[in-house]
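Q: I have 564 residues here and want to know how they pack in 3D. Can you give me a structure?
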Amino acid sequence: MRKLVPAVLSATVLLAGCQGGGGGDTTTSNAAFDPATCQGGTLTVLNQGGINHLDPARLYTSGGGNLPSLLFRTLTTRNRQAGEAGTKPAPDLATDLGTPSDGAKTWTYHLRDGIRFEDGTPITAADVKYGIERSFAPELPGGAPYLRDWLQDAASYQGPYKQPDGIKSIETPDDKTIVFKLSKPEGDFPFLATATQFAPVPKAKDTGVDYEKHPISSGPYQVESYEPKKSLVLVRNTHWSQKIDELRYACPDRIEVTSGLDSAVINQRLVTGAGADASAVTTDAVVGPEQLAQLGTGSELDKRVTRGEFPSTTYLAFNTKKAPFDNPKVREALSYAINRTSVVNALGGSAVVGPSTTFLPPQKALGYQPYDFFPAGDGGAPDQAKQVLAEAGLSNLSIELAYENDDSEGIGPKVASAIQEAFKQAGVTVKLTAIDTATYRDVTGKPATQPGLSLATWGADWPSGGPFLIPIFDGRQIITAGGNFNLAQYNDPETNAEIDAINALTDPAAAAARWGALDAKLGKLALVIPLTHEKDVYLVGKNVRNAYADGWRGQLDIARISVK
């Protein structure tokens, strides 16, 4: 999906969306942590992003999300560990990762014994099916779109309020079994089954658009109070048991979330650690310049930092249907000219981003294979770029670069200026065109209005090469009406066939190798210029224990944090 700005419970959370192989530096205070005795205390969460929705149908999250994962269990969830182990899905409500049949076009799940809603009602397969069907309702927009495409005959389904007969390709032969019939093989289905749309919803308690005022919990916590975009208070769900949910530790007795705060304020409060802030964390305010300057000095602050990597890439997107970018030589020349060091510096330095010459970020689960077909070195190779342009009979090239008019998404004026200067060294004149951030995706995502060259960013919905490469390079994903992410407008039957072949694989390791090979093949075409991959650095309060970045999204896993 699009790059995830890790907003709490946002409809665009980058699973989500959304959202890799990042490790987790645990704080030194973790030595005394014991999940068997970690219960107690209040965890404070300080965030920038607003709590826009609490309805699982409207949340674009994968891996169960972060805070959503405390309320909603799904068929599968992330493995909740740092590093490579954390990039794998794990059973949650289901007893296993699902049984594929019919060449991965059918997936069967069986529910665990003893799982219950917050009111003590047993969770059934029908509740999971109904929760999924709600996510199709136009009244509840915002969720991940995959099921509409993947399920047989579901593309036109309008949800249970308009079509109460439901989706026939989801079968529930008994209370413990749910079967999904897909229109094509999908080996990544266990990853998709982590999405919040797979959370059960009791039909009898569904109040439509008002359901989010108090959604019925299947996780370790339930809602005590909720003020949209401002605050959320969670307390224990007494009908949840760690005996049948070994992945969530659920240490704090209470979790209090405040949103809409400035990132600088959040980080300063975490540094100071006064009062409740001593037991505070953030899920979306990465460490700012002031705090970064203090790290690595051996200070007390070094003991309260955790580092991860969300699988995302910032890149330059060529519209190959527009001159001069329809000429491969132009794309190759600009690839040589790029100065990735200046881009890294524009984005805050090597602590928060790393240079990328591949479209897939450097994470094993995605299938990363290193390559650099147009080596620009640390500072660009302008002479090589000039030579390629001369071979193509081009000189005095002038181009236009579109970018967002602010730097909030990392594709704004700072990066655009760095690129303009790099291309200038190669004799290429760049006219900068700022587009309002609020409408940027509308303009760049519609082929009729798409610029020839634009800054873009992409994050994987789950740790696999598929959600990274398919939206960007599958020609069947080109959407002419708007919302298009295949900005190269690249449509190659051989590439499309390889995508289908990889999708049929149910072995993640085998699929990863094929995704990496496909990335390298596409990289030779210079359809994009990869610029950087993301690194995430978070601070935690001085009383927080077991704080680490999970391997799935590179963010703190609140389900395992303790404040006791």
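Q: Anything worth noting?
A: Residues 1-30 have pLDDT under 50 and may be disordered. The radius of gyration is 23 Å.
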